[in-house]
Design brief:
This protein has helices spanning 9-20, 27-57, 65-76. The protein is mainly α and 80 residues long.
Length: 80
């Protein structure tokens, strides 16, 4: 697929700067990178929504000081 569209001068300068900095080899590389970042962001957002829904659908758990202590131990590997 070939895609062609006009780019405003101020953005054209920015894209050229990205290429000159060595971050990207071509304009196509820059835009492919943007497309990949957008796809990854949307996938991450979909996963987050799914995890949030899973949490909302799960059974409630009583949160006590022992709960927090166990959580700290499992995450940090140490008690506070």
């Amino acid at each position: 697929m070939n895609v062609s569209f006009p780019i405003p001068k101020e953005l054209e300068s920015y894209v050229q700067g990205q290429i000159q900095s060595g971050t990207y080899n071509t304009v196509a590389d820059y835009f492919l990178s943007l497309l990949n970042q957008d796809r990854q962001r949307k996938e991450a957002q979909t996963k987050l929504v799914s995890l949030l829904q899973e949490g909302l659908n799960s059974e409630p758990e009583l949160v006590t000081s022992a709960y927090w202590q166990d959580l700290r131990l499992s995450v940090l590997g140490t008690e506070l």
